[in-house]
Amino acid sequence: MAEFAITDDSLASLKDKVVIITGCSKGIGLSTAQLLLSLGASVVGADLHEPAEGTVSSTQFVFHNANVAKWQDLVGVFKKAMELHDRVDHVFANAGVSPATDYVSGIELDDNGDPKEPTSLVLDVNLKGAINAATLAVHYIRQNPIGGSIVINSSVMGLQRFRAVDYGVSKHGSLGLMRGLHSALTVQNVPVRINAVAPSWTAGGMVVEELFNSLGIYTQPASAVARAVVNLMADESHRGHLIHVDHGVYKEVDEALMLPTYNTLRHKDTADEDESMGRAAELMRGWAEKHEI
């Protein structure tokens, strides 16, 4: 694993940048907004409720009420940033909710005794919200002459088995989002970088520090994760990286660990699947043009 340090100097390039943060009012989102504002960036924050009074006082911060599970709400956030600043430089797709359903013991029955469909709230917010935020980010950031970046808040729960199934699925999906978009953006030469953070237990937001402390479970401060997020925006060498954050220690784990491990599994005669997909898609395009489909 590639462990690295984050210095204050490495974040300085965020001055005067325009950043959108979803889930800006608590925890990691709020701490990231505070750090960016301290660096001289402008932040358009989206959430269902404004940050608590006194937590954000900068005139460079604008709050926009939005439910990230609703496309038009997210469109409104980006349009607000364009209206105010005429550009978007970076987007942090951070909004998330706690586990909401148990697919084993939480199955509910309707009046006929048939199982009810489980709620999709966690998938709608944590995964669909991230997909839509990233899609809009690509559209707007690519209009910048120098491009910009997207950061996805994934989780260590996307790297392991996790009994809160809906939450785990959403975070596995967010990692897939980062990986897939990195490949697509790269092969299409779009000047938008995408990376993700995978924090362990982090105080604030969904994690109640007092409760975890009573169990003897360490929770790192949200500011530790915020530094990783901002570093991914500032350092252009981060491309398709997944930064594991635990006890304030930063390690890149996708290119350094996970992808090389997968490559040891592939048969020597099996072509790279992503490259194969590109070749097949190109062939299909040619076939469709030839047959005027």
Automatic annotation (TrEMBL):
The keyword Nucleotidyltransferase does not apply. Keywords: NADP, Oxidoreductase. The keyword Oxidoreductase applies. InterPro entries: NAD(P)-bd_dom_sf, Sc_DH/Rdtase_CS, SDR_fam. One of its GO terms (molecular function) is oxidoreductase activity. Gene3D superfamilies: NAD(P)-binding Rossmann-like Domain. SUPFAM superfamilies: NAD(P)-binding Rossmann-fold domains. Belongs to the short-chain dehydrogenases/reductases (SDR) family. This is Uncharacterized protein. The lineage of its organism: Eukaryota, Fungi, Dikarya, Ascomycota, Pezizomycotina.
